[in-house]
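anyone seen this seq b4? input:
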Amino acid sequence: MTTKGDMVYAWAGDADILKRGECGGAVTALLKYALENKLVDAVLAVKKGQDLYDAVPTLVTDPEKIVECAGSLHCGTLLLPKIFKEDFNGGRDMKIAVTLKGCDAKAMYELAKRNQVSLDNFIMIGLNCGGTVSPMTARRMITEKYGVDPGSVIKEEIDKGQFIIEYEGGEKGISIDELEEEGFGRRANCQRCKTKIPRQCDIACGNWGVIGDKAGKATFIEICSEKGANLVSGAEKAGAISTSAPDPKGLAIRDKVEGAMLKLADKCREKQFSKLGEGTERLKFLMDETSKCIKCYQCIEACPICYCKECSTKKPYLVPRGQIPPPFMFHLIRYSHIADSCINCGQCEERCAMDIPNSLFMHAIQLEMQEMFGYEPGVNLDLPVLALVEEPAERKRLNDTGDDQIFNIFGQAKGCLK
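predicted toks r here
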């Protein structure tokens, strides 16, 4: 019987899942168990599309099809939570189990604060994440650095500081540090990320800390909530998974790995943010980079924090229509709306047709606000600095009263979520 705070090694009881799953297939087995026993109505996971550079979000309702989502895809850079808001009414109409990276988990919490998703209806299975690689970068990297046809790659993984590929005819690994020095490797936002183990989920799963005869054959699971404890205990009782206590040396190794990755993230932040400069130098850098904007709105469409039905960037008295590139006000509106709650998911940069480093700008602003006000987005349900409101209700209040003051900075925020 597991409880919140416990840590275990776990592996699947099903032979097929054990063979096809990553690190013993515990995550796949837990998802299948949750579906079979009606703990959830569906599972949203990611599976390989045409190749391993094509990550496809997949809603699964048949337990027998869960195994199709087994394994990891480091070259898939999806962010799942906004799908729940836009396609599943925030999970209010069905119970869903979902696998989440650190940035996914943070997005879930930020959307919950805005009443866009209902966390009560989700089982959140966190996946330890050292970072993802853009599909285009991965293809070019494998061609140029590995000398291998990207189409021949059967499997990829990030392990022991290397990006390792298995392809038709062999296997090859190159140091992540070497790759990133040459502009390859993980996405820039992943290099800066410090949410390596998403403990805000119900359970956090990965291979860090699994050693000895269980190495590569079991998943390390950290129980982070009572909901997570019930899931793991129920699955073990039903024979869906088996568990054992973690090796004490493995715990020390896990802490060491996480600590090393956090130090590396600090180093990457210092290096990347130094390019921005300070004061007027930073402002000029931002204005120069954003002058390439073609106003395609992909940064806004992709952002999990953007949720207004009526975007201020589309109001002609704020941003004139038909002007390309748009005036800097277009970007200032976005920065001011999102800055305190940016989760550094990198989607605004990933989708940008003009390669504007949007995520770098936003993350730098967010961290400065975090230092000033102590608010860290996506780790709990504390309200952000800007004391968020329910957008439709607030717009009605503004229209009815003619009052343009959204927040009372000297007291309780008007319309603030309870």
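The two ends are 35 Å apart (CA to CA). Residues 248-273 form the longest helix (26 residues). kinda curious what u guys think
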